[in-house]
């Protein structure tokens, strides 16, 4: 796999992670916690403080997306991307009930599939990269 292809995978990965995390941050966290509207409003009503986990997770995912977008096409960054998407995808699967509770199964399917796809793409990039780019 060429260096430019690996760089493109990291950039697309970063943009997708930024878009998905920003969507969750705005629609679930900000609207639910501060305005009592949106998909998570029913869960957060009267106990907004429980929204800290989602607020932090979506915010950190956005920051990680920026880092992936700006990353050099080195094997270590592809391994980092595998770790990021493995964690987020597994978290989605283990906490699947949240998507049911907020009536957002479609969002769950899309984001979990995205994480799985990027794990596979980044693993291919890890194994297709040569040491000369390290």
Helix fraction by DSSP (H/I, runs of at least 4): over 70%
Strand fraction band? under 5%
> Main sheet?
none
What ranges have pLDDT less than 50 throughout 5 or more consecutive residues?
Answer: none
N-C termini distance = 14 Å
- Can you count the helices? 6
Rg from C-alpha positions?
A: 16 Å
Tally of separate domains: 1
Structural class by sheet pairing and helices: mainly alpha
- Following the backbone from N to C, one meets helices and strands in this order, namely HHHHHH
What is the subunit organization of this protein? single chain
Protein name: DUF4383 domain-containing protein
Keywords: Membrane, Transmembrane, Transmembrane helix
Could you explain how this protein is built, in words?
The chain has 134 residues and is an all-alpha fold. The chain has one domain (3-129). It has six helices and no strands. It has helices spanning 3-35, 41-44, 52-70, 75-94, 97-101, 105-128. The longest helix has 33 residues, at 3-35.
Concise synopsis of the structure shown:
This protein has 134 residues and is mostly helical.
Give structural attributes.
mainly alpha, DUF4383 domain-containing protein
Fold topology:
Layout: H1 3-35, H2 41-44, H3 52-70, H4 75-94, H5 97-101, H6 105-128
Helix pairs in contact: 1-3, 1-6, 4-6
């Amino acid at each position: 796999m060429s260096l430019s292809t690996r760089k493109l995978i990291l950039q697309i990965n970063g943009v997708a992670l930024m878009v998905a995390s920003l969507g969750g941050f705005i629609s679930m966290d900000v609207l639910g916690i501060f305005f009592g509207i949106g998909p998570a409003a029913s869960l957060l009503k009267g106990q907004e403080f429980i929204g800290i986990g989602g607020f932090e997770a979506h915010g950190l995912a956005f920051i990680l997306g920026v880092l992936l977008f700006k990353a050099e096409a080195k094997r270590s960054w592809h391994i980092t991307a595998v770790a990021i998407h493995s964690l987020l995808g597994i978290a989605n699967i283990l906490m699947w009930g949240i998507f049911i509770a907020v009536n957002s199964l479609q969002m769950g399917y899309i984001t979990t599939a995205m994480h799985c796809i990027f794990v596979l793409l980044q693993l291919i990039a890890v194994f297709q990269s040569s040491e000369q780019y390290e």
